[in-house]
Amino acid sequence: MRAAAVRTLSLLLLLALWESAGRLWLDPLQLPPPSGVAARAWDLSATGELWTHIAASLGRVIIGYAAGSAIGIVLGCFVGAVPVMRDFFSLPIRFFRSVNPLALVPLMILWFGVGELSKVILIAYLVTIVVLYNTALGIETIPADRIRAGRCFGLTGIALFVRVIVPAAAPGILTGLRLGMGFAVLVVIGAEMVGASEGIGYFILLGRQYVAIDDIFVGLLSLGVMGVLLNQVFLLIRNRLLRRYVRTILYRG
Amino acid sequence: MPPPRISKRTMRQVLSIIILIVSWQFVSWLADDRAIVPPVQDLLAKLFDMTASFELFVHGLDSLRRVLVAFALGASGGVILGLAAGAVRPLWTFLEVPLDFIRSIPPIGFVPLAIAWFGIGEFSKYLVIAYLTVIVVAFGTVSGIRQVDPTRIRAARCMGLSGWRLFRHVVIPSASRGIIGSLHLSLGLSFISLVAVEIVGSTSGLGFIIMDSRLLLQTDRMIVSIITIGVLGILTVLIFGLLLRLLGLTRFTR
Amino acid sequence: MLRLSAASKRFHDDGPWVLKDIELTIPESSFFCLLGPSGCGKSTILNMIAGFEAANSGTIVLRNRPIVAPGPDRFVIFQEAGTALFSWLNVRENIEFGMRVQGRRRAERHPVVDRYLSMVGLSDHGSKFPDELSGGMKQRLQLARALALEPEILLMDEPFGALDAITRRRLQHAVRSIWRETGSTVIFVTHDIEEAIFLGTHIAVMTAGPGATIKCQMPCEVSEPRDPSNPEFGGFYKSIEELIREEIGDE
After folding, report:
1. Dihedral sign computed on CA atoms, order C9, C11, C13, C15
2. Which residues on adjacent β-strands are paired with residue C8?
3. Across-strand partners of C63?
4. Scanning A90, B197, B223, C46, which has its CA 20 to 30 A from the CA of C91?
5. Rounded mean pLDDT, B67-89
6. Contact C137, C122 (CB under 8 A)
């Protein structure tokens, strides 16, 4: 309780400091105070402009993420469970993982245009790689005795895979899904800054071009709130619905 | 002399690379436009050109400098902040929420703000690359300090250690594992931020070359730069690990 | 002499008593085994003597001075050696650490390290790191690290509980000969009756918790060499087993 009070207090203090800095010492055009940012956010959401951009970014993220995580889990199970595939995929995966995600933005736009396709493909590709890698790793690192225990129950093949291997690899899969979410948001903003006509990234860049710093702040705050909410939704699903599969993460030791 | 034995594993790995290259060539043939999907021989030729003209070297060096300077600044700041916040609990209660919020914003979002405030010079670039390192390392340091095993603290207290001496001789070394882990992580992240600042507002560096190639439709030049950044990232992380080993810091990761 | 008088402990203000009116007299240079059923609060007594936990009431007095905080005159050998040892220091450095932080000079430290290294039989492993040692070796290292500070009292909290039977027996022999050699007091917590009889000069049996007390305290005068197959050893074992069975019943 005391910690919560100190946290609330710290946020209030920070806002007060920021407000007075914007009003008293610095040019409010350079550092818009929270009240100004809030007013601007209100205007932008009243006209629906802010929501258009948020919806555009979120839509891209959700479609690309859904596709990428589905492909990543399926491929990851395949690679992790079949030893021959592990050998075949290990170097290519290492190569693709080391490619800088933002560096691919211009390439994707060059190949697939400035439309939706390039962004969705890029997000899906990045999510696939990170989910694939972590799923395969999760399966490879299952303790051998756990799989043997499953076989003692007479499980083999698909039944063993579905009932023992996938649940045991769940922490790895979920790690991949969480990292993938971060990459998806990062790269969609990058893509929207390099070539788009809507989306939060585009909106922030526009703010820079018109030297409307309050717009930049509104964009950044929306991004932060979006990131926090997406993470909370993820944790909620993981810790409520999938709790039994991640006990080793939640209660380490 | 017996012939060198090559394991099945190695053979498969070599084969996987060959398959990768052949598929690329196939896609290139399918696309039927060397300018858009350049085959491997074109990429190699471009790599040779860009090396010979020192373009890769000059811009690679610019990128590397940005990462290294920003990482050094950010890492020092992060460790100092983390140690202070780990020692003084209210300080962290105060900082945790705002820092966590800032961390949840992708670094590329801050590029326009940094440019608007500090111009397109090097300072704004260092700032964008360094701030995330500060936060990541501070979080790593604090959680490293929090996770020191109580048994170890008790053992140290048996030796008469307490207060600052306990912190210096036992808590910091025990937390070093977490600190070093977060340094590795943030070095990797620094390369992502590097590309962020270079594709949005820069006139030099490999990220700039990538954007420049897009305008000029030079896919080969773009791909060579993308791979160079990747290689630079791997090498830097590798050298960082080597440096830790040379400095005898790996003992803290046991 | 170490004396606990009416020492009681609970962890929350309105919580149940974990220990109630503990009376213990531990003579100097004795090998004192504290024996009791699992979860009765043996370790809590040890932690109070070490100074990690304060008693809610009663007194704990070492040579007429009350114990208020941990100090180098009492050293704990923890069960989890892996976490208690300093993972970033090798075997020699772990032993040296205590003397280093006490500000003793390098020239002074090295002979001490050598001495205890050979006493616990780790002379060939001086440059290894803790994670490279077996469980038994880790406990030997903990012992050497404690001995190097020459504490008056060694507090051992089920130190061999996680070891295999053979390693365990070898370490029991080692601890006993080290105790003879150094003349320090050892307070040894265990739930293993045989271990207590094999090692102790005194045995105290605790009642089952909550609100555990000392059921009885007795000298352990089984003749040397102590051998579990000896009828005298067996008879003593039976009588203590009976005391403990009264506490936990025939589960």
Report:
1. negative
2. C57
3. none
4. C46
5. 95
6. yes
The predicted complex's ipTM stands at: 0.90
pLDDT of residue A253: 35
Q: Is the CB of residue B183 less than 8 Å from the CB of residue B75? A: yes
What is the SS3 assignment for C189? strand
Angle, helices B8-31 vs B40-52, to 10°: value is: 90
The Cα C19–Cα C21 span in angstroms is 7
Closest CA to A73 of A191, A170, A213: A170
Q: How far apart, in whole angstroms, are the C-alpha atoms of residue A52 and residue C55?
A: 65
Q: Which residues of chain A carry a pLDDT beneath 50?
A: 252-253
Cβ–Cβ of C84/B152 closer than 8 Å? yes
Beta bridge partners of B165: none
CB B177 within 8 A of CB B253: yes
Q: Which two tokens stand for residue C82?
A: 């892996």
Within 8 A by CB and 6+ apart from A243, the residues are A250
Tokens of A151: 């076989």
pLDDT at A26: 80
Q: According to DSSP H, which parts of chain B are helical?
A: 8-31, 40-52, 55-87, 89-103, 110-118, 122-146, 150-158, 163-166, 172-200, 206-216, 219-246
Q: Are strands C202-206 and C31-35 parallel, antiparallel or unpaired?
A: parallel
Q: Which of B109, B110, B192 has its CB closest to that of A100?
A: B192
Which DSSP state fits A238? I
User: A33-49 burial, b if ≥16 CB within 10 A, otherwise e?
Assistant: bbebbbebbeebeeeee
Nearest residue of A to residue B198 by CA position?
A103
pLDDT at B183 over 90: yes
Q: Which residues of chain C have pLDDT under 50?
A: none
Distance CA B176, CA B183 (A): 10
Partner residues linked to C24 by β-bridges: C4
CB A172 within 8 A of CB A139: yes
Residue B149 touches chain C, beta carbons under 8 Å: yes
Q: pLDDT tens, A167-185?
A: 899 989 999 999 999 999 9
C25 beta partners:
C3
Instruction: Give which of A70, A166, A58 is closest to A119, Cα–Cα.
Output: A58
Residue B1 has pLDDT above 70, yes or no: no
Q: What is the pLDDT of residues B185-227, one digit of tens each?
A: 999 999 999 999 999 988 999 999 999 999 899 999 999 999 9
Which residues make beta-bridge pairs with C204? C34, C217
B91 near C CB under 8 A:
no
Residue B3 has pLDDT above 80, yes or no: no
CB atoms within 10 A of CB C15: 9
Q: How far apart are CA A69 and CA C130, in angstroms?
A: 41
Which chains have 3 or more CB–CB distances shorter than 8 Å to chain C? B
Tell me which residue in A101, A105, A224 faces B104 most closely, judged by beta carbons: A224
Q: Do B192 and A106 touch (CB under 8 A)?
A: no
Of C101, C129, C149, the CB nearest to B254: C129
Ramachandran bin of C158, using left for φ above 0, alpha for ψ from -120 to 50, beta for the remaining angles: left
Question: Can you give the pLDDT at residue A11?
Answer: 84
Tens-digit pLDDT profile for residues C109-149: 999 999 999 989 999 999 999 999 999 999 999 999 999 98
Mean pLDDT over each residue of chain B, to the nearest integer = 93
Contacts of A189 in chain B (CB under 8 A): 106, 108-109
pLDDT at C26: 93
